[in-house]
């Protein structure tokens, strides 16, 4: 196991394409000398003890397809230049101490397939504009990565939380995609444009402070197999549009402020037969600890979200 810091001499490897010292005991700041490796396509530094801000030299690495910095001690803002990394397919910053808001510039990442900002200290709203995430809107076949890494037969290991389980992929293909913003301090509404991501496989925005209603546009996400909106402040009824998502196999809407009746559908009732997907919504008719399904059932207090009125 490697310990200490990444040696400065790595900066002499200007033709470097893959760098993967993940899963060691490396620490300190990620050295700026890596900016000389302008052909770098795959950078995996997860599961170490790196600290400091997001490395500024990364904006020079225009060929990056995979950037994984998870499980370190990085902090500060996620920089706006992240949107300039046009070849990025996988961006994983999970389990650090990044704060401030999610940069709107992620909408410039047309090739992005997997985005994981979970377990940080991010706050503010979810990005409203999502129309630029082309590969989450239109299905394409083949490997997620470009020719160089594929030609080297280099296995890319990627963890995704989907269908209630931690899934691990050694060969990442186009249908292995997802967005995970869980376990932050995000507020505001779920944007209407979320429905544009028609081929998204997994969406996890649980354990935040999101409010407002679940948008009907989610019903357009035909490829969605796993949806977790639990532990938020969402209100209103569960949109009936969810019942037409035939691909949906895992659903968690627990511990929020939902009301009305649980929608009926061809397979909706079987998504979570024990009711745990709806627990913790005291005004939701049909939830294990929710309201009774009659006309005299109590209703949640009327609240007004600032975002709804703007």
Automatic annotation (TrEMBL):
Chief location: membrane
Membrane topology value: Single-pass type I membrane protein
Subcellular location: Membrane
SUPFAM superfamilies per UniProt: L domain-like (SSF52058)
Source organism, top-level taxon: Eukaryota
Keywords assigned by UniProt, alphabetized: Glycoprotein, Leucine-rich repeat, Membrane, Receptor, Repeat, Signal, Transmembrane, Transmembrane helix
Keyword DNA repair: no
Pfam families hit by this protein: LRR_1 (PF00560), LRR_8 (PF13855)
KW Signal (keyword) present: yes
Gene Ontology CC: membrane
Family (UniProt): Belongs to the RLP family.
Alphabetized PANTHER family for the sequence: LRR RECEPTOR-LIKE KINASE (PTHR48063), LRR RECEPTOR-LIKE SERINE_THREONINE-PROTEIN KINASE FLS2 (PTHR48063:SF84)
Protein name: Uncharacterized protein
Organism: Vitis vinifera (Grape)
């Amino acid at each position: 196991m490697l310990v200490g810091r990444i040696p400065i001499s790595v900066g002499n490897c200007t033709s470097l394409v893959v760098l993967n010292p993940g899963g060691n005991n490396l620490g300190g700041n990620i050295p700026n000398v890596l900016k000389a490796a302008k052909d770098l396509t795959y950078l995996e530094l997860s599961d170490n003890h790196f600290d400091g801000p997001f490395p500024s030299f990364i904006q020079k690495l225009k060929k990056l397809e995979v950037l994984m910095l998870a499980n370190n001690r990085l902090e500060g803002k996620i920089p706006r230049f992240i949107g300039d990394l046009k070849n990025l397919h996988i961006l994983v910053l999970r389990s650090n101490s990044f704060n401030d808001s999610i940069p709107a510039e992620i909408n410039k990442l047309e090739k992005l397939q997997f985005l994981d900002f979970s377990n940080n200290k991010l706050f503010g709203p979810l990005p409203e504009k999502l129309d630029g995430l082309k590969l989450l809107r239109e299905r394409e076949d083949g490997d997620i990565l470009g020719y160089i890494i594929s030609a080297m037969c280099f296995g890319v290991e990627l963890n995704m939380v989907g269908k209630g389980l931690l899934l691990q992929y050694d060969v990442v293909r186009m249908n292995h995609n997802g967005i995970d913003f869980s376990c932050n301090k995000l507020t505001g509404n779920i944007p209407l444009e979320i429905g544009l991501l028609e081929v998204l496989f997994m969406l996890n925005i649980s354990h935040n402070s999101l409010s407002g209603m679940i948008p009907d546009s989610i019903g357009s996400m035909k490829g969605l197999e796993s949806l977790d909106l639990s532990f938020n402040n969402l209100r209103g009824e569960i949109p009936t549009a969810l019942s037409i998502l035939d691909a949906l196999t895992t659903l968690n809407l627990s511990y929020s402020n939902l009301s009305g009746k649980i929608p009926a559908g061809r397979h909706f009732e079987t998504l979570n037969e024990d009711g745990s997907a709806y627990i913790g919504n005291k005004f939701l008719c049909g939830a294990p600890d929710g309201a009774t399904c009659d006309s005299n059932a109590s209703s949640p207090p009327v609240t007004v979200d600032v975002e709804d009125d703007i």
